[in-house]
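Worked example 3 (structure in, sequence out).
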């Protein structure tokens, strides 16, 4: 389908057709923990294929000259239509409802009158209609209410599809549709199909992060022969008849191995789930008048979450005081990323670093596009980081991340732009400060041989600091004796000079409270201490 270009006239189009995929997270994460790393990406790709194949069906039914693609990304799409009769629209809905009636995922197709001069009017109109249509699922397909079995592709189908996905060069829509929804390297829906291909000149190229996964290479395999033997024995135990279970270059790195990598670096065998989402995007678009501005903004966000994140993922971070470079490509697993959000799983230390890198990149990217996009203010980003055991049930990860993200977005007087971490909600500035304090504490423990009891004192300082912060804000003064007691409590250390940079964070926050009425969340200190605790457990075994 041809795609709308800014500056293109749309006066001949009368209808906006909007598709919205729902149930995405539950669908992706409804997998067994064993082999989850091989199935999550296949299910995530299925969501993208669902929208793409629906667009192909719409073009086939309406004709190429009758429709124009406005946007496709993040589980949603919009298409301009010239002529869309009631009968044709009902037929499109019925086809979708028939093919998805036995699945855990759903696509709502809605339509609204198109105002070619005012995007916001059409946007608000289609949002209201889509909300109503979600409550009227299967209205044109009553057979969906008869008892039937849920469609469930064999787990091996998903695993094999994922393996082919990471080796593919893209996908095309040539060939004969199959009877099943997913078979080998092909997804079939709505009488259309999508086939993975190894041809370099495929119809669609994998130029975004969704096509990439952490995979083994020979150098990584040679680093830890004992762990490799363990993984191979475990895989053979799970499926003794499958020789391909042995780790080899190009195989997806599983979550248990990511936890193992984190343990080697820090002593903490954990993974983390990161969910990030642009704040109040619906509000932003409801005020946009021009179609070109909406298109440019949507495309900018799509570019960031698909291509800019790929560039970040291809980088890495410096781990601990050793200066070891760690590649994100071997420690970060992108579940999905597009539209205005992303969800990833990875080694806990890598996820923390990646979250901060994404936030900084988002701020820089949006600042650089602010004038071009004609935005009145900078869009903000909220996030949730959930730390779990490397063998934690995968089916629960998505729900926990979603709940935590809701807490981050509703934590402070309607102001978002925050991150949930270790059960606390911090601003990004506070998160960055916690990162710095955690690094200082790590050096204090590992280099200066400070007892790890300092971490408990930092955590316990929360209550005293919180009282002084509120007094400074409310009364405009610092209660010196209480502050001295707090500082003395923290300074009970064999390395008082090394603690100076951490003490200065307390002092700076209190001074800003008095002089600028800036409130610093006391939670950043226990978060920093917890972060440092995870980074220094390795010293217990040395």
């Amino acid at each position: 389908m041809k795609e709308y270009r800014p500056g293109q006239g749309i006066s001949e189009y009368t209808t906006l057709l909007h598709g919205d995929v729902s149930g995405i997270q539950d669908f992706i994460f409804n997998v067994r923990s064993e082999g989850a790393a091989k199935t999550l990406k296949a299910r995530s790709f299925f969501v993208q294929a669902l929208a793409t194949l629906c667009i192909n069906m719409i073009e086939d039914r309406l004709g190429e000259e009758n429709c124009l693609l406005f946007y496709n990304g993040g589980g949603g799409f919009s298409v301009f239509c010239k002529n869309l009769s009631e009968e044709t629209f009902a037929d499109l809905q019925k086809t979708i409802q028939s093919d998805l009636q036995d699945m855990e995922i759903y696509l709502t197709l809605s339509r609204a009158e198109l105002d070619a001069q005012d995007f916001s009017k059409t946007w608000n109109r289609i949002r209201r209609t889509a909300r109503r249509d979600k409550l009227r699922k299967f209205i044109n397909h009553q057979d969906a209410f008869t008892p039937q079995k849920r469609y469930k592709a064999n787990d091996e189908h998903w695993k094999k599809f994922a393996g082919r996905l990471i080796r593919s060069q893209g996908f095309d829509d040539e060939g004969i549709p199959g009877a099943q929804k997913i078979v080998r390297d092909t997804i079939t829906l709505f009488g259309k199909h999508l086939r993975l291909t190894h041809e370099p000149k495929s119809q669609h190229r994998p130029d975004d992060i969704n096509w990439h996964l952490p995979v083994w290479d020979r150098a990584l395999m040679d680093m830890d022969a004992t762990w490799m033997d363990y993984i191979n024995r475990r895989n053979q135990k799970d499926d003794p008849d499958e020789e391909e279970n042995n780790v080899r270059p190009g195989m997806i790195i599983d979550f248990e191995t990511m936890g193992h990598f984190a343990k080697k670096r820090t002593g903490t065998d954990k993974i983390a789930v990161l969910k990030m989402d642009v704040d109040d995007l619906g509000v932003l678009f409801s005020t946009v008048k021009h179609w070109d501005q909406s298109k440019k903004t949507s495309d900018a966000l799509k570019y960031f979450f698909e291509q800019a994140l790929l560039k970040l993922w291809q980088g890495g971070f410096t781990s601990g005081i050793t200066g070891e470079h760690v590649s994100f490509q071997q420690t970060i697993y992108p579940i999905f990323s597009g539209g205005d959000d992303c969800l990833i799983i990875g080694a806990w230390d890598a996820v923390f670093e990646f979250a901060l890198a994404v936030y900084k990149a988002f701020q820089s990217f949006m600042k650089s596009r602010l004038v071009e996009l004609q935005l009145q203010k900078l869009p903000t980003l909220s996030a949730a980081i959930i730390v779990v055991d490397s063998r934690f049930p995968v089916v629960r990860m998505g729900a926990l991340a979603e709940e935590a993200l809701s807490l981050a977005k509703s934590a402070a007087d309607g102001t978002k732009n925050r991150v949930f971490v270790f059960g606390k909600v911090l601003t990004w500035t506070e998160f960055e400060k916690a990162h710095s304090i955690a690094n200082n504490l790590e050096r204090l423990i590992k280099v200066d041989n400070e007892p790890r009891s300092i971490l408990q004192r930092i955590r316990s300082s929360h209550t005293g600091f919180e009282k002084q912060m509120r007094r400074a804000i409310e009364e405009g003064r610092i209660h010196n004796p209480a502050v001295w007691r707090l500082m003395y409590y923290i300074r009970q250390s064999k390395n008082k000079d090394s603690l100076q940079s951490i003490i200065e964070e307390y002092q700076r926050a209190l001074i800003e409270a008095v002089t600028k009425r800036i409130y610093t969340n006391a939670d950043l200190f226990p978060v920093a201490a917890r972060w440092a605790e995870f980074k220094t457990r390795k010293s217990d075994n040395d």
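Notes: The chain has 17 helices and 16 strands. The radius of gyration is 26 Å.
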